[in-house]
Amino acid sequence: MALAEEALRRQLGKYKFRDLTIEELKDVSKTYPNFTFSMNTYTFKDGSQKDLLNFSGTVPVKYAGSSYNIPVRLWILDSHPFAPPLCFLKPTASMGIAVGKHVDARGRIYLPYLQNWSHPKSTLTGLIKEMIAKFEEELPLYSLSSSDAARQSELLSYIAKITEGETDMKSRSKIGSRNEGCFNKITVVGAGDLGIACVLAVAAKDVADKVVLLDLSEGAAKGGTMDLEIFAVPNVEISKDFSASADSKVVVLTVNSLGNAQTYLDVIQSNVDLFRGIIPAVSHYSQSAVLLVASHPVEVMTFVSWKLSSFPKSRVIGVGANLDSERFRYILTNLLKAEVLAKDAWVIGEQGEDKVPSWSSCNVAANQTEAMAARNSREKVANRAMEVLKGKGQRSWSVGLSVADLVDSILKDKRKVHSVSTLAKGCCNINSEVFLSLPCILGTSGVIEMVRLEDDPLVQEKLQSSAGSIHDLQQQLKL
């Protein structure tokens, strides 16, 4: 060890806390002698590079009565031990990554131990022990068949680049060599009630040529997923493999974490952790897709999807208040007999109690008195409609129908206006990067144009208030 220690000492010349780092590495080498150490160049997402120490090897994991050696690679930052290492799986060509709570599709490892890293309590050996414990709860790799291995070869190549330190998302190339032409394929991620409702609604409207349902749950098919297979719904494929989503025109995200989070912030953070393993994978396989987010809270998860995908803002939207807007106009037209008002009526803002009615245009009265009277009359009718709307729940099947409506407008390039969650920065004096429901024209490239709303100080105040609370919440999340 003396010779290795001296070699490490020379290699770590630029490390701020070299002696502390070497002592930790000695403990790692003693406990896990199979690890090998080397200096390599790591490229960060912003394009900057550093020569960093890294070590590779296998960690022993027992799962379902069998023993496995899981290959991993850890990069030690030059501020160690006051900053956590960057951890990755290092799969071979015959291994597939089982995306889960602690591992994303690129092989990046996320653990509570890393998030709560604090010297001197946190150590490399402690990190590896937690890694083993979490992998024994949820095995991070699985063996691929020869056909699966061929199908995922490009993604594995990409993952290999990631574990070598090449993390620039812009380096990804388009998957697949065939030209899909006008083939309309969509993918629904998540096989819960909402995911299955979306599949059935899209199939019922005959919107897409093919629908892929990505079932990310563990174990054999259960419930609705099994029923879809039994009754063979036409043009629907069920898969656990992200590569099945390749070349989708629209990717619908319906997954929500079912963890044991204690607070609202913990619940959202669990969803963020889940999305870290999903968004890069679906974005990799369908780089021209529109991401349509139906997971909760939709405004925050649309923002998270936008950040993790690196897609332009026009191609990342949330289902937002589309369902509420359609219901609102139906109530105005059919129950309150106010068809003229319904024409330009929208529900906008934040999904839930803070949503607000608005209009994209208004009739100009002959004088100020008439204008005020018309506005008051409209407000009374709108309040009655909103009261009726509050009594309408959002069941999975109703949200599924709303999703199918949005998918139809996108795939068929209808240029129809919908109230969807879109980046609201620059609208109504909102200066933060938040997503709110606003009326937008949708087409094959997502949001084509935002429809201008009439000036209403009260509406603007409510939108700004929602934007502020959402932005404050986003600031507390760990992306």
Structure description:
With 479 residues, the chain is α/β, with parallel strands linked by helices. Helix content is 39%, strand content 21%. It has 16 helices and 17 strands. A 6-stranded parallel sheet has the order 9-8-7-10-11-12.
Provide a short characterization of the protein structure.
Helix 7 (193-205) crosses helix 15, helix 9 (264-276) runs parallel beside helix 11 (298-309) and helix 12 (322-335) packs across helix 14. The protein is built from 16 helices and 17 strands.
Overall average pLDDT: 82
- C-alpha Rg, in Å? 26 Å
Separation, N- and C-terminal Cα atoms: 39 Å
Total strands: 17
Silhouette: elongated
Q: Could you give the order of strands across the largest sheet?
A: 9-8-7-10-11-12
Helix fraction by DSSP (H/I, runs of at least 4): 25-40%
Task: Report on the biggest sheet.
Answer: 6 strands, parallel
Question: What descriptors fit this protein?
Answer:
479 residues, four-stranded antiparallel β-sheet, alpha/beta
List the helices and strands and how they pair.
Layout: H1 2-11, H2 18-31, E1 36-43, E2 49-63, E3 66-76, E4 86-89, E5 95-97, H3 112-115, H4 124-137, E6 141-143, H5 146-151, H6 153-163, E7 185-189, H7 193-205, E8 210-214, H8 223-230, E9 236-239, E10 250-253, H9 264-276, H10 279-285, E11 290-293, H11 298-309, E12 316-318, H12 322-335, H13 339-342, E13 345-348, E14 356-359, H14 368-390, H15 396-411, E15 416-423, E16 435-443, E17 446-450, H16 457-475
Parallel strand pairs: 7-8, 7-10, 8-9, 10-11, 11-12
Antiparallel strand pairs: 1-2, 2-3, 3-4, 5-6, 13-14, 15-16, 16-17
